[in-house]
Design a protein that fits this description.
By secondary structure, this protein is an alpha/beta fold. It has two domains: about 1-150 and about 300-388, STAS domain (Transcription Regulator spoIIAA); about 150-285, 2-Layer Sandwich (Transcription Regulator spoIIAA). It is about 40% helix and about 15% strand. The protein is built from 13 helices and eleven strands. It has helices spanning about 1-5, 65-75, 80-90, 100-110, 115-130, 165-180, 195-210, 220-230, 235-250, 255-265, 315-320, 340-355, 365-375; strands spanning about 35, 55, 150-160, 180-190, 210-215, 300, 305, 325-330, 335-340, 360-365, 385. The strands form four sheets. It has a four-stranded parallel sheet. About 40% of the residues are buried.
Amino acid sequence: MAGIFGNKSPAGGARSGSGAARSGSNSEPASELSKVDFSSADMSIGLDDCADLVEVQEVGAGIGAIYEEAAVLYANGNIREAEKLLETVLGDESAAAGEGLWMMLLDLYQLTGQRERFESRVLDYATRFERSPPPYVDLSAAQPRRKSDLAALVNLTGNLTIQAEAQFKQMFVIGQKSGALRVDLKRLRSVDDDGCRLILDLVAGLVRERARLFLLNGESLRAQLEGQLQVGVANRQSAWLLLLELLQHAGDHERFEQWALDYAITFEESPPSWENKPRPPAAVASASDAGDGPGKALDDTVLEGELSGANNESIRRLAAVGASRKSVELDCSQLRRMDFVCTGTLFNVLSALQGQGTRVKLHNVNAMVGALLRVMGVDQVAQVNLRR
């Protein structure tokens, strides 16, 4: 791939790496690391400071060059060309291709739904490496877009009235886009009927969007509402409904049934049915432990689909999450492809996180993406675990 990265004079020993993708060749030539700037001026963290850290390994002629070329072809969307290149080198017995190239081709067949081609090659793989071959998994089928596991945290404080309507609209947009929202009720001093309706509308809206809503630390608000409501006095219906909602989020089925019966008596209508509300993961069960804003004690995140460009939202989210954490685990099981520029931006973010002491692990990376991550040096600033 000298045509892409330019010829370099040999330098020190080749970099060490991790994972099966490193076996593209049994003995790779020494190489010099070139520097490429993929930073974006509007990234939320200081990527410019590490722009000169992007390192692209130039691998010399032979199997290493094929490994690199196939990875870049796939990253650029030239899938058929990458497939033909891998098939050619693996069909040449004199090439002595390593396991890394075999795994790339087998994963490429799965990514493109070519089961027959996969099965025709997998026996050769098993014979050559004397181990059980990987099972076929169709990675080509369109997967339903998975909402982000990140749950932004919003703290409600003071007296909740209709004056907060604009803020609740913003909260709905946040929950809709990220697929999850945490609302901490601990600091609320009072809630009038309009405020109760704002919370109920937020709940109903996010349910329609199939987004998860966690109402946290509602004990004080529940006690406040219980002290205000009177059985048989048919007013403040929104407050009644909010109380029933809070009891469901608290998982208090017994008290819910008691208040649901009182609701039916008071308003002469059926109360809401009991629902098992989503429970926050243990790491975020208490928003008081998470501080006053998002980015603390969050769920781990995902990289999925086909990522491209320097300003990819998934990479921005990783930068924001990692800025306040000591470790981040990325689920890459649904990550099909990353382009060259997006991978460079990922390197910049991971370099910055590594510099501040944050450890990042990428799990279940397919071999085609894993090869590009190795070529781009991402495995030097994060742990990359290939899908097996």
